[in-house]
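Pipeline run #58 for the internal structure catalog. This entry was flagged by the ingest filter as a single-chain record with no existing model, so it goes straight to prediction. Upstream metadata was stripped on purpose; only the residue string is passed forward. Reviewer on rotation: M.T. Logging verbosity set to normal.
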Amino acid sequence: MGKAKANAGPLARRPDNSAFKQQRLPAWSPMLTAQTVLPFFYGMAIVCVLLGAWLLVTVQNTHELKVDYTHAGSCDKCFEKRKDRANANQSCNCTVVFNIENMFKGDVFFYYGLINFHQNLRQYMDSRDDGQMIGRNKNLRNPSSYCEPFIKDKNGLPIAPCGAVANSMFNDSFTLVYHSAAGSRVVPLFRKGITWYTDKNVKFRNPQVENKTLTLAQVFEGTGQPLYWQKPVYDLDPWDRNNNGFINEDLIVWMREAAFPNFKKLYGVLNRAIEPFTDGLPAGNYSVLISYNFPVEYFQGRKEVVLSTVSWFGGQNNFLPVAYLVTGCLILLLAVILTAVWWKFGKNGRNMEE
């Protein structure tokens, strides 16, 4: 016969007689009374209201000006011209005039904006080849199937960069002009340094080849440009040869998809080293010379240019300050209601049985 097991019987599964297993450890639980809860509610309401007011004042100290140029000024003829796809390769320039009433002090950022353009559609976001954009030679000539139908051009050459995201790259260009009593002058903009550091140095690279004497055009030989592009990827910036290929900053900015259908993307930053822009953008009359290329009528969209200053909190966005103010007011209202209920029914334990 086998040896009988120790502690056999109905008590075999009983936990050990220890403070931990028998739940005899000392414990603390808060007593939620009016004297402890109500001060917390009032304190949270004051904190939210003060924080919301502070953020609102900060946001109001920034300036933002939006100019919709879809049909504005002489751009109306360009809008009509872009309705016909046969005119896609024909250039069209227009001018929009506007006024800045108050000086934009400090750093000024120049954005282009699109309305009703859904970059957040799943199929659209997937239509790209990150292996190609990072400079892998294998992906350069054998793009991912995710890029379909923008994977090969009409000649059967692999497209670089492939996919719907790159194919729909925004290609309007702008020249901002300041009109003062002394005459008109072009507003200088920094067109580099507008991307995220990780995008520029990690996620986007040109293909590497052993022969360092090859030009960028030779590196991309055997590939085709996206169907709706006017230039190949190695010739996007004719003024700066180091800003071409997959490291072109306008391309990188576009390839970071927006989360909402109405968005703006950075185009340039004011160069404050040149007079009279050392303190910012002076008040006065301005015009924007636009190379009007990007069609918007197919998705019932609109285009705009945006001039904005920023603070430590960012650009002009009232959502978070208003959210704090509304939350603080709701907490304060709830605290007042709880105080009235406690005063009438619960103070000193009176009327609780009723």
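catalog note: The chain has a mean pLDDT of 90.
catalog note: Residues 151 and 162 are 5 Å apart (CA to CA).
status: ready for reviewer M.T.
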